[in-house]
Amino acid sequence: MKSMHSIDIDTVEMTLDIMKYAIHRISNTAPEMGSPKKEEDLLKLVGETVTEKGIGGEKAFELFKDVFVKATVPADHPRHLAFVPAAPTRAATLFDLVTSASSMHGAYWMTGAGGIFCENQAMKWLVSLTGLPEGAFGVFTSGGTSANLSAMIAAREAWRDQNEENRAFRALLITSNGAHSSVKSMAKVIDADIILVDDDEDDRLTGKWLQKAIDNLSEFDRKRLFAVVATGGTTNAGIIDELDTVADVCEKEQLWFHVDAAYGGGALAAPSVRHLFNGIERADSITIDPHKWMFSPYDCGAVIYKDLELAKNAHSQKGAYLDIFKDEGAQGFNPADYQIQLTRRLRGLPLWFSLAMHGTEKYTEAIERGLSLAINAAKQIEETPHLELVREPSLSCVLFRRKGWTAEDYRDWTYENHKSGFALVTPTKWTKNGESETISRFCFINPDTTEKDIEEILASMK
Ligand SMILES: Cc1ncc(COP(=O)(O)O)c(C=O)c1O
What we know:
Bound molecules: pyridoxal-5'-phosphate
Number of helices: 16
CATH superfamily of the domain at 104-358: Type I PLP-dependent aspartate aminotransferase-like (Major domain)
Distance between the termini: 65 Å
Strand content: 5-15%
Largest sheet: 7 strands, mixed
CATH class of the domain at 104-358: Alpha Beta
Oligomer: single chain
CATH architecture of the domain at 104-358: 3-Layer(aba) Sandwich
Radius of gyration: 24 Å
CATH topology of the domain at 104-358: Aspartate Aminotransferase, domain 2
Shape: globular
């Protein structure tokens, strides 16, 4: 009897159909700009898809192509400039297929040695961009949230190990107002309290402001304080905290220094802005998301530690069925030891393949392209009388206003542009001196975005 795993003519045909779709999609530089539909509308269109007997691969795939994928927004559309978009290289996306097809378990060197070797080659490059000292290394995670969480756990455990008394306190960490929501929500996961420090006039966390906040802590809170999270490129505005002075304070106060460069980390490879990250080489841990500005498909984050042993103390899992391998080849780097996940996809492989194929210079070029698109957008905004820059671009983020528009006008404009399949540019809020304003925001990642795209989007703000 035919089973789910048997190969027959139908399976071969379905494989060909799927490969044809994948090749077409991967080579498409302007995919249809889909938009979401309500769940009940989707259900009305397709009916139940999971049934006792199955609806068949052909039918399920047809529904995916005709209905479901059209109810998603392709993150790599060149006029998708909202949130932090994505632009995986074709090589990386193709290799994501290979990674799935190869069914590799990436928790342990024993089962994943060859694949982990490749991941580590890519990681070596990432680590070299940070300037961290010899011995620093990292591991690929499912994204920035899990990288931040893994780092915070390592920090909290290191702090607890310093002094038995620390186990009696609920931990406390300091970050800035501009920090990503994942820092705040992962603090909840580890049951730590969090203090948000005001930014300086340039909207950055600085050593001066950090020191002030620490000096204002009660004696009890000072005892509970274990880490500082700075941001290497805020999600909303691309702002990089003053990492060097923050590092000074962390050193003086003996606090774990984490830099969340989930979005901005790509720019470490861009010589034009690398100096803005000075001080990152003094971090205890760093988050970088290759699925943001390093052209990897979802999902791929990375956490890097100055001292891997501290991460291992926090994350290594023990089990009766582990540690049994006699084979010398089985001894090596176990990614499961350095982040929260055990069974894991070798999600660094698409980045490795693309890096191996193209070389790191091409990455630098593509990241510099995002930076120059931001500069170009700023110039076009300044030349348009009814538009105004809210602040100079930081990294690849540009904040600007359409003079005279209300929050409702921005929302309508976003909706119309998206609905017509033209572009996705969403409004954001910018707060200065306690006043919050709705404005517009570009975030450039995709090197296929053109100056003409920017011109046409701005022209639609009439
Ligand atoms: C600075 C920063 N940190 C963390 C995250 C969370 O990353 P992820 O969505 O990959 O979990 C983001 C996402 O935009 C981010 O910009």
